[in-house]
């Protein structure tokens, strides 16, 4: 019994020792917990202070950014205003320059040009001041030109012929009877190796037709014999535009960022103008070779005939897709591509262009407002329009073969 009591006493002492050890560990853990709790509380307070500091810095930064943005907006507004004033000033100067030269030319002749019909007879077209332009109200003739997309359409100076061209690589010549509104194909001019992009007639003798193509070349045909007279090669990319300057001088503009002047008598390029941006359209200012060109870099360039440099550049807000010059006294609309062409009416009182929705838009130049919208006839984008020399009709061609003549 004594041994058992001794063993129990030893176990009890051992248990007390373990209990004391556990109590000491518990006190240590409690002390550490309190220390950690204190550290957490301090860190939480510092976090709140940091969040408050970040919020203050964010507000200050936002205020500074808004202030800078306001200042930048004011600079942009001031820059745009100055740019608009500069553009207006340059346009007025360029317009006055063109008007003076043109008025001198018009005063020397009572007629604007001679034109020849297919019968070989010479017809006189009245001067600009005597032309009475009619704003069309409806489609009077509709027909399909070829089997592929259309990209160009143009009236002959006599108004009795229409030329169309497109991705079928041909130029189709149509006879238009303005008395009974009948259109029939006369013949087709072949020779292009790619899509026809633009067409022009010789206004001096009215016996030549010019076509430019995506095959890097321009070609000239005779209207009376339908013979290919000239093939003008030298551009390094698609030719987007080409115009007769005189009966023997042609100007062309290309995707290769150059303009070229071609002498038909010597069958060679006589000048190359480096624009630095692809040329979408051009107009000839006078017979000396002074050109005005519109480009992808949003600039209209006025070229000096005496040298190969520009005498004036106008910076616009978007790529220039088309040019038409007023040779007289003088955005509800979206273009479908960079090569869509617009025209002025013969009396230079209206401007006309085709839109991406298949509508023909006519603006009154004096008011700057839309005079009329001709729609519901074309089913796709309009690539080109042309105004009848007498001002009575407008021709338009859409991408999908269809051509329409509009009248009263």
Order of helices and strands: HEEEEEEEEEEEEEEEEEEEEEEEEEE
Q: How many extended strands?
A: 26
CATH first level of the largest domain: which class? Mainly Beta
Q: What portion of the residues fall into strands of 2 or more residues?
A: 35-45%
Rounded to the nearest angstrom, the radius of gyration is 39 Å
Number of helices: 1
Q: Uncertain segments of ≥5 residues (pLDDT<50)?
A: 99-126, 328-332
Q: What's the pLDDT, averaged over the residues?
A: 83
Shape: elongated
Counting structural domains, the number is: 2
Largest sheet: 4 strands, antiparallel
User: Percent range for helical residues?
Assistant: 25-40%
CATH architecture classification name of the largest domain: 7 Propeller
Roughly how many Å apart are the termini? 137 Å
The main sheet orders its strands as: 3-26-25-24
Return the CATH topology of the largest domain. Methylamine Dehydrogenase, Chain H
Describe the overall structure.
- There is one protein chain.
- The chain has 408 residues and is an alpha+beta fold.
- The protein folds into 2 domains: 1-108; 117-407, 7 Propeller (Methylamine Dehydrogenase, Chain H), CATH 2.130.10.10.
- Helix content is 26%, strand content 38%.
- It contains 1 helix and 26 strands.
- The protein has a 4-stranded antiparallel sheet with strand order 3-26-25-24, with no helix packed on it. It has a 4-stranded antiparallel sheet with strand order 4-5-6-7, with no helix packed on it. The protein has a 4-stranded antiparallel sheet with strand order 8-9-10-11, with no helix packed on it.
- A hairpin with a 6-residue loop joins strand 8 (196-201) and strand 9.
- The longest helix is centred in the first third of the chain and has 106 residues, at 2-107.
- The chain is elongated.
- InterPro entries: ATG16, WD40/YVTN_repeat-like_dom_sf, WD40_PAC1, WD40_repeat_CS, WD40_repeat_dom_sf, WD40_rpt.
- One of its GO terms (cellular component) is Atg12-Atg5-Atg16 complex.
- Residues 5-32 form a coiled coil.
- One of its GO terms (molecular function) is protein-membrane adaptor activity.
- WD repeats lie at residues 148-184, 189-231, 232-272, 344-373, 375-408.
């Amino acid at each position: 019994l004594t041994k058992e009591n001794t063993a129990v006493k030893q176990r009890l002492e051992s248990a007390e020792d373990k209990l004391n050890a556990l109590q000491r560990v518990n006190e240590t853990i409690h002390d550490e917990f309190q220390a950690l709790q204190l550290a957490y509380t301090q860190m939480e307070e510092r976090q709140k202070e940091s969040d408050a500091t970040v919020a203050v810095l964010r507000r200050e930064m936002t205020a500074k950014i808004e202030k800078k943005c306001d200042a930048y907006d004011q600079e942009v507004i001031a820059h745009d205003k100055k740019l608009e004033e500069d553009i207006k000033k340059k346009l007025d100067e360029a317009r006055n320059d063109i008007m003076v030269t043109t008025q001198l030319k018009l005063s020397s002749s009572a007629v604007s040009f001679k034109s020849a019909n297919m019968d070989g007879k010479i017809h006189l077209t009245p001067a600009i001041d005597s032309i009475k332009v009619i704003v069309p109200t409806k489609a009077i003739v509709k027909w399909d030109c070829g089997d592929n997309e259309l990209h160009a359409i143009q009236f002959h100076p006599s108004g009795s012929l229409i030329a169309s061209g497109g991705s079928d690589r041909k130029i189709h010549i149509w006879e238009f009877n303005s008395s009974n509104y009948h259109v029939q194909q006369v013949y087709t001019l072949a020779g292009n190796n790619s899509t026809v992009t633009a067409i022009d007639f010789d206004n001096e003798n009215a016996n030549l037709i010019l076509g430019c193509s995506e095959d890097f070349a321009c070609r000239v045909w005779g209207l009376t014999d339908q013979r290919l007279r000239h093939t003008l090669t030298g551009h390094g990319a698609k030719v987007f535009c080409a115009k007769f300057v005189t009966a023997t001088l042609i100007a062309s503009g290309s995707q290769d960022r150059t303009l070229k002047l071609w002498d038909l008598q010597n069958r060679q390029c006589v000048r190359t103008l480096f624009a630095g941006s692809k040329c979408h359209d051009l107009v000839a200012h006078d017979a000396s070779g002074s050109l005005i060109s519109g480009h992808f870099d949003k600039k209209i360039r006025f070229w000096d005939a005496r040298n190969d440099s520009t005498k004036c550049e106008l910076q616009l807000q978007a790529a220039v897709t088309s040019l038409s010059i007023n040779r007289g006294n003088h955005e509800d609309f979206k273009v479908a591509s960079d090569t869509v062409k617009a025209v002025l009416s013969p009396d230079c009182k209206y401007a006309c262009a085709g839109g991406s929705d298949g509508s023909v838009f006519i603006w009154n130049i004096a008011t700057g407002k839309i005079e009329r919208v001709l729609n519901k006839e074309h089913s796709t984008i309009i690539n080109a329009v042309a105004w009848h020399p007498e001002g009575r009709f407008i021709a338009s061609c859409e991408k999908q073969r269809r051509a329409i003549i509009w009248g009263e």
